[in-house]
TrEMBL record:
One of its GO terms (biological process) is L-glutamine catabolic process. It comes from Yinghuangia soli. This is Glutaminase. The keyword ATP-binding does not apply. Residues 426-450 are annotated as: Disordered. It comes from the Bacteria. InterPro entries: Beta-lactam/transpept-like, Glutaminase, STAS_dom_sf. One of its GO terms (molecular function) is glutaminase activity. Its EC number is 3.5.1.2. It catalyses: L-glutamine + H2O = L-glutamate + NH4(+). Substrate binds at residues 64, 114, 158, 165, 189, 241, 259. Homotetramer. Keywords: Acetylation, Hydrolase. SUPFAM superfamilies: beta-lactamase/transpeptidase-like.
Amino acid sequence: MDDPVTAALEELHGRLAVLRDGEVAAYIPQLALADPDAFGLALCSMAGHRYQAGEADLPFTIQSVSKPFVYALAVGDLGPQEMLRRVGAEPSGDSFNAVSLEPGTGRPANPMVNAGAIATTALVRAESPAERFGRILRVLSAFAGRELDVDEDVYASEARTGDRNRALAYLMRSAGSLDGDPDEAVDVYFRQCAVRVTAADLAVMAATLAGGGRNPVSGEQVVAEPDAVRTLAIMATCGMYDGAGQWLLDVGLPAKSGVAGGLIACSPGRFGVAVYSPPLNQAGNPVRGVAALTEMSARFGLHLMHKSGVHAATVTGAQRIERGGRSIAVVSAQGTLEFTEMEAVLRAVREVTPPVPGWVLLDLTAVTGVVAGQATALAAVLADLAARGHHVAVAAQQTFLAVARDRPVPWRRFTTRDQALAWCELGEPGEPGELGEPGELGEPGEPGVP
């Protein structure tokens, strides 16, 4: 019996395969040879589990679906501010191959239209065009979790018919927004677009972006999380060209399409999904892909603006107990602490902490994760309690609190609640906890520290 995810994909595939709207891209002659009936769906979860239906293993060229991944590479090379100075981030409202350059600067509107993608590709650091493409191919392969290659026939077809892209490159060169040889820049871009993938590959690639740049299958951190987040934002506003606004209204997920029939969408922190179906609508997006993702978003509540479902209570206990003549404030929490959950924890800590210096125990043994900003906020609150004379104990299986190594840790950390409670009841204020030596809680960004 199929699992529910595969069953859902197969049901969508069977029902939408009959759609006959759209046309296969023909402006690149080799793409016109694609089978219009080819249709594959694939999904990859944050746990690295993979699901598919239809022709999800059929190879095709990545085309414009390469743009977000190369953008993530380039922004890691240049940094976000320099990248923004060179390539904009505003939706153009134009088609993928439009002349979308900023008046006065010649800066492309965004990295998802062809002009911006060519400029972005040219910004990938390298000593030569061959080295630049080598880096691009390696990062695309790392996103996919396997070694990818180039469809030389499609590359040759694009090179023969790519005069408009060459014109864009020369126009940007004349405007000062493209450095180097325009022909070399466009040639690398043609090769990038001709990299061969499957829908199953694209699902893993999308999941890697959705997971903060970490490939859920290979475990490799392909790009830094801030670069993945920035890429998802660009995809959400610009990834579907002049259909981006309607897409965000109807589907509400960061996405990117390609003229060979590929389409990816990212559900941040949940999964990546991909579709292959060559017939395109007027905006250049796969007809069956748009229909499939629209249904999936509505059916499973995936829209970014959708209110999240009901969760278990974060704070599982908040009380002040008397032990050995001491007043001990105890707050217990569970699950993942994001903004809303952390607000509840901090409110509980404030409510039960005694007004005069006493003992505070924060039980995080059932907490599975703390997002970076909230880890810093919680550490600051505990440090403030210690500065006001409270003796603070933290029970946690992992290091969740973000502090710098060159600062003393003003609380004691234990691996169990019982150990922490025993210290609060019997320990001396100056005694070190079992794991509470200064600096042991690490720095933000280290393994185990959000």
